[in-house]
């Protein structure tokens, strides 16, 4: 069963050398069997080996003749088995049947059953035949590869696709800008504690000694003062004054046991309802509440951007696959074109045209790869590990398809503007700022009032009297009023004017923000409905383009159209698929915009 040598014009190595184009990496994507260049030599070697075995048969005894004959038979059988694994291309399946039907009278009977020499060019030699020793047994130097008992299921090997929820969870957990927004809670809490510090209990102490001079005396004192939330204060203290005091400092002298004193102060006009300390405290408490809608607004914004980047990444992956599919079509027909050229059924320039298509489509694949890499890099800014480090998603994590594109209900679309207004964190932020500004206005109006404070002071000396009159011993009670007012009060009136202007600014800003919120919702709904209509049209276009491409391929195989026309249909089908991918990605990105316009957080 030795196989004859192949014609030089149909040599596999020469044919593959003529059609070589593009990078090896991109060629590997095509499902084409490569023909080994040494197939002819290996067939000749098996023929020569069989001849050598026959020549040695005469030199060996009759007892070993049976073994040698069995060896020859086994060698030829193995050669026949290897030569029978013929790969029949799609072209051969269609054109051969048509040629048989149209040329039944001209073709001899054996043409339909016996393969032509050109078919042998597609024999696939996956590995060398096992080498045999003189006794016909396989050599030990080439052991057979062990077959695993059980294969691992594909589902256990393939990684789980990256979902949008995985990205959003990463944003909530470790996105730096959102983490920075979370820290604004601590900033506001610290400012609130700082404002509360104005009401801290104050401890005061003093010690004054004058050991030298005409008047020698010693004074020590300690006191505590507690500011009150009503604007006043409480006072309590102890002091001791010993020594020789001048007459004009007689009040600094106490009895031998010292003096205990207490007092209270209270504003009557200015700082009665509000003062600077309480204003700062009120605003700091409002600030702690204001940061929550600010954090919520940033969470909504970052979630929207992350969702858009995610769908851009998914769309880029599917677009890359579409370009690869278009390239594979050109690669799959390389052998068929060469076969038809050799049979005289096609012009030689068709091979060059197909190589041009391969080069152009490889360029498109490279461009699609770049877009996919760019989309993955952008997505890595939001997709992070728990430590906050960016993770570059591998293409193996790409989902195989888009999720269903479902529109919100009609009622939800009608209620969307009101829902967005009610849940708007931007409006809530402005409302908190208005409250803070109103506190500033109250404080400014308080500054216009004259200062009038009342004070009550009581003291009692204990211990031995320090003077014969005993004037330090009785219980003392003192009541006083203190008043102060700037005549022009320009600082207060200027503060009122500026604060009222800020309130008007915030009011106008709130009005515009509400109008912008409604407009954003309307635009998001419009984009959503438009994207849905595009999806319907794009899917119809894909179906029609695929049907046209199938018919065009049949006509190309029949010779009714050339490769240039077929390329138009293939490119049209791919373009339709790219439009469909872009439409679905735009719809899902419009959903992200719609949710952001309605101020929907990931956990709601």
TrEMBL record:
Compartment(s) of residence: Cell outer membrane
Presence of keyword Membrane: yes
Main location: membrane
Transmembrane region(s): none
GO molecular function: efflux transmembrane transporter activity; porin activity
Coiled-coil features, chain-numbered ranges: 521-548
GO CC term (a single one): efflux pump complex
Gene3D superfamilies: Outer membrane efflux proteins (OEP)
Sorted UniProt keywords: Cell outer membrane, Coiled coil, Membrane, Transmembrane, Transmembrane beta strand
Domain of life: Bacteria
InterPro entries from the UniProt entry: TolC-like
Name this protein carries in UniProt: Transporter
Source organism of this protein record: Bremerella cremea
